[in-house]
């Protein structure tokens, strides 16, 4: 019996539903504290209602999996009384107002409370397609190119590399075997389909720019790099293309959920700001900054990695 | 088209398709986003970082770092993320090929929990002090945890491990999600943060697969690394293969590579086997300095004084014992111990990594952001600029700022592997076909073998021959009664860094009296330079850097250098190891870049220039006698 209860609890701890219920219970408690059936937070009388005691007992059951004993429930309620009294006194003394941690947590809790549960719903296929269409740039697959290259090494040929490259280019254009031309190197003689960023990493900026700007077939060059002069033959091009939803469904879904949450939070802050006239008195070096803040500040999204 | 899909499956899912005999059809419902490049039997160099911290590490969170494992992967893949001080960080030299997120396993995820309203941990009385923007208060908070770690006792308020479990789960999930076979490899890992009395015995533990044990084995279970290795043995029988990597021996006060066991007894055979089996790699360069060798240990190596760090980790306690803290000496001790107990406990390969706590490695001198969040995120806090209103004439960095000023923009782990998959990257780490760099992507190959010198590795044919008839870095070369082995080494510069100046071979050997010796040979010089037979050094290539602008000579040094070398002092009867060290031309150190950007003088107590470098794993020569 005991082990099956433990087993149940272990499973329960991992259950999203239990997480949901626990968070729900926490919210309920919080909501009760602010708006609940008990006396307002400034009254002289403190009544711990039946409902409150039941809540405390239920939290205990949720955490321990059993009913609290008489002693336990008494001690829990007593602890709650201390908490309630302490809280009222602390707020009355205003010690929450100048405490940055308390202020920050109040804000966090507020944001947590207004977070719309529906924001986390799995987006529909149609929503995802619409999102992908609207943000096509973000999911666009970049162009990739495969190429061969022949190096005329600056180490070996010095300033003569450019002249030798011209001669080698003429040979290549008349059908010479590229494997027999140029200097051996740790650089690959042939690169598979690679993005411009990838080519830049190995060959440097100028080489990559030239390889990706080139139009047309056959050998061209010379193109300079930190290694010397190169002749390049672009062997295949895979055009950049938009992706299909099936290729990025998980990413799109996560991005939509994040965006919805941010929107909900931003809208909430914008509404709250409308209740106040806010004026910022900028000191000297910043005097030219605007005296009223952005009425609708936007949450920044997590970084997107360009392909 | 069908054939292509099958080929992609064969490459992408080698284990899954082959091992379990599953039909690949189910895996192919989604069209392949991009065709995988074919595996290269001659292997490619891949660069990565096996040592990185995110918000889940107790110290990183205290340093105001909020970036998650997902953001760390985004940065490594070429994305832009925010520093704790709010500025953007991005890799100028392009994305990395692989990354392991290795958060401190002790109190993993606990600080974010303390900072989460409603979490039971949020109730700790000192919660408020932990999340300050003031570097001094941050330091006090950090000490609370740092001191607790030194004792190895779990703070009792964090006895419930649900938070650790959940953070560990997130790390594993993030590694799964961010893995792109053929393009970017993620490795599951963590840092075992043992520091008895502050002496650094930290290790990174890296798992081979896409899953890991339910909880990591931490220094709160035991500070004794022997217990970690035994746990790793146990996990291996449970199907979780892993390796561990030592780091910052330089901060261990001589305890990282000792000649005795935890109980004080001399090293025995079983201990040597246990260590060698589990710990095939050492991190030789990172932000907190170099652990290759120290000038006092290698007085005849004039390049030994590179980014030396002489403090305990996270403290201004000075290190007093260098012997036992540096890898070259450990490799030598390994030869001596092997002669005594029959197994070499210190037969490890070399890698570099960053140890960044910003979720983003700082590998580039010209865009340095150091590693501990708001603690060292600007030049004043890391000692490269005096505070407002002061000059170097009336200000000298002290305490942490002084420590930070000696840190470096380093390092990277290089591996040679046929393709960029988790299986292949891990296999390369395990067989030690690895190299370390101090930041730039210097590529270096190193082989040894009898008769391989006739086909230089400057061509594919030569590389093929070297693999077929010789051994690569990290391996043993079994001696023959006659003849001398050839060594082949070749290095290529980073297109985004300076040209190369020279390649050296560092040799360690057991002399006739059983005493380990060392010697550094220059084996390849840039600019057609010659090696002096007496000094074994290249002639000076005269490369200079203008410290006012950080511009350096473009016409000095080489893009690639190579050598076929044989040891002029070779003795087939003596055990030895050889590793290659590649030196760049001098360039500005990060502290000089910082000063130039601000238009001030560089800190006069710091080196203005450095010579970036790469180190290969050793090749061990096993003499005919043994």
Describe this structure in words.
The complex is a heterodimer of chains A (307) and B (626). Chain A is an alpha+beta fold. Helices cover 54% and strands 11% of the residues of chain A. Chain A has twelve helices and four strands. Chain A has helices spanning 2-14, 16-35, 50-64, 70-93, 100-114, 125-134, 136-139, 154-157, 160-173, 196-203, 205-213, 245-273; strands spanning 144-153, 190-195, 219-225, 228-238. Chain A has a four-stranded antiparallel beta sheet. In chain A, helix 6 packs across helix 12. Chain A is elongated. Chain B is of the alpha+beta class. Helices cover 23% and strands 20% of the residues of chain B.
The biggest sheet of chain B amounts to:
16 strands, mixed
Helix content of chain A: 40-55%
- The count of domains of chain A is 3
* C-alpha termini separation of chain B: 56 Å
Helix content, binned percent of chain B: 10-25%
User: How many helices of chain B in DSSP terms?
Assistant: 15
Physical arrangement of strands within the biggest beta sheet of chain A = 2-1-4-3
Low-confidence stretches of chain B: 1-32
Indicate the mean pLDDT of chain B: 92
Q: Return Rg of chain A in Å.
A: 33 Å
Strand content of chain A is: 5-15%
